[in-house]
Amino acid sequence: MSDVILQMEHIDKSFDGKKILKDFNLEIGRNEFVTLLGPSGCGKSTILRIIGGFVNPDSGRVLFEGKDITHLPPEKRNVNTVFQKYSLFPHMNVAENIAFGLKLKKKSSAYIRDKIEYALKLVNLEGYESRDTTSLSGGQQQRVAIARAIVNEPQVLLLDEPLGALDLKLRHEMQRELIKIKKEVGITFLYVTHDQEEALMMSDRIIVMNKGIIQQAGNSKDIYDEPQNAFVADFIGESNIIDGIMVRDCLVSIQGVSFQCVDTGFGINKPVDVVIRPEDLEIVEKGKGYLDGQVISVIFKGAYYEIKVKVNDYEWMIQSVNPAPVGDIVGLTILPDNIQIMHKPVSDDEEVSRDE
Amino acid sequence: MNELEERSSKRHWLATPYAIWIIVFTVLPLIVIFRYALTDSAGHFTLENTAAVTSPINMKAMWFSLKIAFGCTVFCILLAYPMVLAMKHLGLGRRGISLFIIILPMWMNFILRILAWQMILSNNGILNLMITKLGFKPVAVANTPTAIMIGVVYDYLPYMILPIYTAIMDISDDLIEAAKDLGAGSFTVFFKVVFPLSIPGLLSGTVMVFVPSMTSFVISDILGGGKLQLIGNIIEQDFISGNNWHMGSGLSVALMIFVLISMEFTIREEKTGRESVIW
Question: Per residue in B56-115, pLDDT tens?
């Protein structure tokens, strides 16, 4: 990452004695689409508010293009925010909302008019200039909020769960549009969400957080395929997370059965967490897989069936396009490179979160 | 749905006690006043009583009332905004205490408060005592327009603060953050966001301060020493000492018309606002 636009160094922040961020470090490259992903209360919004200038960190620095902006007030920063609750000015129409920042920058009225037109076209709201913001739907209001931020040509656009208040279909539509807008305007996006699907779909880089600590950073595929701890594995997508013993390199024992895998470097006979994605498990005839168990439930989920198979005391979750009869004894098999081995959690933030 | 509407329409009767109250104590007296205003002592129709407002002495009182009411409104606005903005940044507890302090004087009798001001402002009063103690010359505030102005501002200030307070506390912090995010400094945030959104409260406050200060007569009686006449004092004298109910009613109607016109003017400003004004 040669062209770093934003850096956060050793940021600590507490609210009412509760530590929200602990020695938080982050670098964001120019033109990157970075997503902060984590459960509510993990500190992701606080990071955005620190960058926006609404919250002062207890310690640490924020650098923007190498310059320290830690104590610069929000109005002097070259970043703009799209808020979760839209926060449009109710006493102004759509055009006046979008023009707010430009008027403060004393731009010419011709320039402002062009910008409004361009921005409304970008967010698919052509001809809405004189509409009252209160008469717009949630999706339309959020589009105006995006337009209002983008016309200021910020170097970094901060998006704080911007689609959180929209219904599922509209959210999917807006996700695609945000990607389009990002390509069109070519600015850095720092996106905050608790929706893992949204993060996987949109981001160049995902930063998974829990309890104020980065759990894993990487692109969507890395995060999904190679979760580094139980928290990440559980938070990103569905997972079977089960205790195992790493017998030696490339051999793991799960429920007393030895599985071939591809992981190395965990030592000899070490307890580990094993992650297996439900879509990677395959149901075969009894006795032909690694494990045998009884089908205890089958739920149709549209694109696939979610099947639970009980082996000893553990219920394996399997996603399959073919159903299996409930009550049957079946075998389970898996390819070695679909078994992901993780170290046991060393601190509570790396554990599966149980408060849902 | 229909059933719901039906049920709610049946609830109209709940307004009956209030309706009786307002008919007996507002509508009927108004009719009586209009009857007196539009007749002479012989009972013949006349507009003279109302037109009498244009006589020099009445015009002078009217003009003085207008100045007091306008000045009072402006002072109240200038005092209320900084106060409310300061309160916005207090924690919940301290905000409650400051609100309590603002409302506290309203719990005491109005005449008592004005008499207290008379004691404070009189030539040998507390104010001059303190001023002379500090080595300055005593000031003659008693029985001047300044004394009346102090009285009305003191009395009506809470009626300006409360609606503005309500309007400003309703403004979500997100909007203020959004404005800052878009490059607005504190002054711009106030003039472009906070002030425009507080206008409904400002209008309510203006109506609640302007109208009573325009029509008051007790404050000017006590603090003006009876020499400075507001239009309210002249009407009072017509009723009490002059015993000319026709003239008093006529001037009351003229004043009422004037107030209605000026308020209409104020309310016009806010075309799209929520229900902001008192009536």
Answer: 999 999 999 999 999 999 999 999 999 999 999 887 889 989 999 998 988 888 899 999
Q: Give the residue from chain B lying closest to A106, CA to CA.
A: B183
For residue range B188-218, what is the model confidence (pLDDT) as tens digits? 999 999 999 999 999 999 999 999 999 888 8
Instruction: Please state the domain extents for chain B.
Output: 1-37, 53-268
Class of B53-268 in CATH: mainly alpha
Do A156 and A73 share a structural domain?
Answer: yes
Q: Which residue from B minimizes the CA distance to A98?
A: B182
Smallest Cα distance from A87 to chain B, Å: 5
The residue in chain A having the minimum alpha-carbon distance to the alpha carbon of residue B173 is A87
Are A251 and A260 in contact, with CB atoms under 8 Å apart? yes
Residue ranges of E strands in chain A? 4-15, 18-29, 33-37, 59-64, 67-68, 79-82, 156-160, 188-193, 205-210, 213-218, 240-248, 251-254, 257-260, 270-276, 282-284, 291-300, 305-311, 314-320, 329-333, 340-342
Q: Could you list the residue range(s) of the whole structural domain that residue A93 is in? A: 4-225
Give the gap in angstroms from C-alpha B101 to the nearest C-alpha of chain A: 29
Number of domains forming the structure of chain A: 2
Q: Which of A164, A192, A225 is the last residue of a domain?
A: A225
Q: Is residue A356 part of a domain?
A: no
Q: Which residues of B touch A85 (CB under 8 A)?
A: 172, 174
Cross-chain Cβ contact B175/A87 below 8 Å: yes
Q: Is the ipTM of this complex over 0.90?
A: no
Distance CA B148, CA B231 (A): 14
User: Does the predicted model carry a pTM greater than 0.95?
Assistant: no
Chain B contact residues (CB < 8 Å to A): 172, 174-175, 177-185, 188, 192-193, 196-197
Is the residue at A233 inside a domain? no
